[in-house]
Amino acid sequence: MSAPAPEVLRLERVGKRYPMGDTVVDALVDASFTLREGEFMAILGPSGSGKSTLMHILGFLDSPSTGQVFFDGCPVASLSERQRAHVRAEKIGFVFQAFNLLPRLTVRANVALPLSYHGSPPADAEARIDRALALVDMTHRAHHRPGELSGGQRQRVAIARALVNEPRILLADEPTGNLDTKTAAAILDLFKELNRLGRTIVVVTHSSEIAGHFRRQLHVRDGRVTEGGAA
Amino acid sequence: MKRLLSGILNGLGEIWGHKLRSLLTICCVMLGVASMVVTTGFMEGFFSGWERSLQEQGGVEKITGSPRALPERQAPLAPASRGFTLDDAEALRALVPTLDVISPEIDFPGARLSRGSRRHEVRIQGVTNSIFEINRYEIARGRMFSALDFADRANVIILGSEVVRECFAPGEDPLGRYLDVAGQPYLVIGVLQHYERLWGTYNTLQWKNKIAFVPITTMATKLRPTDRLNWLNMKARDLSLLRESVDAASNVLAQQHRGLIDFTVTTNEQQLASFSSTKAGFVIGGSAIAGVSLLVSGIGIMNLMLASINERVREIGIRKAVGATPFNIFSQFVAEAVTLSLIGGVAGVGVAVGAIKLLGTVLPPGSAPLLAPSAFVVGFAFSVTAGVLAGIYPAIQAAKLDPIEALRYE
Ligand SMILES: Nc1ncnc2c1ncn2[C@@H]1O[C@H](COP(=O)(O)OP(=O)(O)OP(=O)(O)O)[C@@H](O)[C@H]1O
Ligand SMILES: [Mg+2]
């Protein structure tokens, strides 16, 4: 056995609580786990269990109500908003459950967006955009607007946008929810390939069949995270 | 630099994406700038007219000497008062070197002119050639008076344009012809330039056209046998010598008149002072109007920017989610506000030029606004400033949004 890969993200008793009028909703309770470099992990759980909440915290988009998150061993809470934005722009690719494309921009401009917030825009930006579009087979729709695409096509554009920065960590919230089995399988193969190249990948899914392809699985139920094999 | 450029291009895209809202913002700025430039133009027009009439009355270096009744304490000496005479003019010429023009004048108001069947009543003044300099008259055709005219008390006359119009047929050349003045024939030797400065349909300089001049010696011996002058006007060599000249002239005249203060020596300063204070008042009032219109346009921009942010909360959330820093968002919105107000500023200047040109053709000259280059610069600078200032607050609001909350926003 070789030494374990360096840790990328570590959660310590992370909780997220939303006030809802008189009561509160505990979307996440005492979540503790470590994500290591090069991992290929699925997150499973019923609707409303807290999967997206967890993903947002992993993606620097949301901060926990309790507990701590460490990125490369450094507490995320100590980073300024600007520093967190730079991590989002350069190290993390995020595929939203709701796609979150900008309706007024073309597919190509949407995919290019993260590059425009890059600290030093890469010289091969155009080539990267082309490559990302080709990876999800959306080159032919580059000049369309999201409103002119099907749900599955939008999902693929969202994936291309997450890949364009060649991020260290890819976080995808149900990236295959709107895709037919054939396209879903192609996306899954893409993720596997990226993981083989060293990327750390976390994917939320409802399908235990898809989850079966991942080396590690997390189960979320009522905000509680448990490590597990098959469901 | 490249980032700034892409920010502006991005801003232009957004502006184009919200045509109506952008148009409204641009209109706000445009009206603010246009109203400021036109208001300033009106003031410019008004004051340049006023300044010119002041010039036409002899400018600020002119000193007016006129006879008046003795003051109360000297009233019993009235019989000794002899008013201004040509001797006074000589004394001033000899003793006050800071004066460069001295113009003795004898008035003959309501003098009757006739020529054939034409009759005309006009103010004739007996003058020296100094009158042309001191009251700014110019001879359009013919000549001034000669030394011989004064020595001979010659029957020669110089006519204002209105007198020519009344006494001669159109196209008829008055030079070398004779006119009857109080029954005597006078030779026309010169014709004055026509003066016109319209205020509405009223020519404010008409008084300079309704006049005729004869040599002062002719007036004093033939038309109004008198040695009393109605006016003894002077002009200081330089504005800086004005006070000194007034004092010196008053002293010389008091001495000439053996201490009787039967005259006043005044300047246009008072008029100038009231001109300056009125101008200052107008400038303050005009600036207040302009300030209010800019404030209104600023509020307009701010309101529309805030509305635009409300509408774009999700967009802001998405941009932040893919790595936009608060500063990226802030500069995006400021760039949009600046771009909009720049377009509005240019449009406002265009509208102002159009409005001033149009008003110039519709309004009577004298009340029409003028194109003041400084107003453009100021109006433009202010609009951009208003745009930036009004854009900053909404931009800060946008930069502060939390990405996940923004993404949840419906
Ligand atoms: N901003 C919020 N305010 C209040 N409650 C919230 C908020 N965000 C999430 N929740 C609640 O937290 C819980 C977890 O939500 P989350 O979106 O993480 O679920 P999920 O596992 O992603 O579900 P799905 O599979 O349907 O996407 C839900 O009960 C939800 O109502
Ligand atoms: Mg979810």
Ordered list of secondary-structure elements with their pairings:
The complex is a heterodimer of chains A (231) and B (410).
Chain A: E1 7-20, E2 23-36, E3 40-44, H1 51-58, E4 66-71, E5 74-75, H2 81-90, E6 92-95, H3 107-116, H4 125-135, H5 151-163, E7 169-173, H6 181-196, E8 200-204, H7 208-211, E9 216-221, E10 224-228
Parallel strand pairs in A: 3-8, 3-9, 6-7, 7-8
Antiparallel strand pairs in A: 1-2, 1-4, 4-5, 9-10
Helix pairs in contact in A: 3-4, 3-5, 4-5
Chain B: H1 2-17, H2 19-56, E1 62-67, H3 86-95, E2 99-115, E3 118-127, H4 130-134, E4 139-142, H5 147-152, E5 156-159, H6 161-167, E6 178-181, E7 184-192, E8 198-199, E9 202-203, E10 211-215, H7 216-223, E11 231-236, H8 242-256, E12 263-267, H9 269-311, H10 313-321, H11 326-362, H12 373-400, H13 403-408
Parallel strand pairs in B: 3-10, 5-7
Antiparallel strand pairs in B: 1-11, 1-12, 2-3, 2-6, 2-11, 4-7, 5-10, 6-7, 8-9
Bound molecules: adenosine-5'-triphosphate and magnesium ion (MG).
The site of magnesium ion has 4 residues of chain A, from helix 1.
Please describe what this structure looks like.
The complex is a heterodimer of chains A (231) and B (410). Chain A is of the alpha/beta class. Helix content of chain A is 31%, strand content 29%. Chain A is built from 7 helices and 10 strands. In chain A, helix 3 packs across helix 4 (125-135) and helix 3 (107-116) packs parallel to helix 5 (151-163). Chain A is globular and about 45 Å long. Chain B contains 13 helices and 12 strands. Chain B has helices spanning 2-17, 19-56, 86-95, 130-134, 147-152, 161-167, 216-223, 242-256, 269-311, 313-321, 326-362, 373-400, 403-408; strands spanning 62-67, 99-115, 118-127, 139-142, 156-159, 178-181, 184-192, 198-199, 202-203, 211-215, 231-236, 263-267. Chain B is elongated, with a radius of gyration of 34 Å. Chain B folds into 2 domains: 2-55 and 274-408, no CATH class; 63-267, no CATH class. The chains are: A alpha/beta (231), B alpha+beta (410). At the A-B interface, helix 2 and helix 3 of A face helix 1, helix 10, helix 11 and helix 13 of B. Bound molecules: adenosine-5'-triphosphate and magnesium ion (MG). Residues 18, 20, 25, 27, 45, 47-53, 97 of chain A line the site of adenosine-5'-triphosphate.
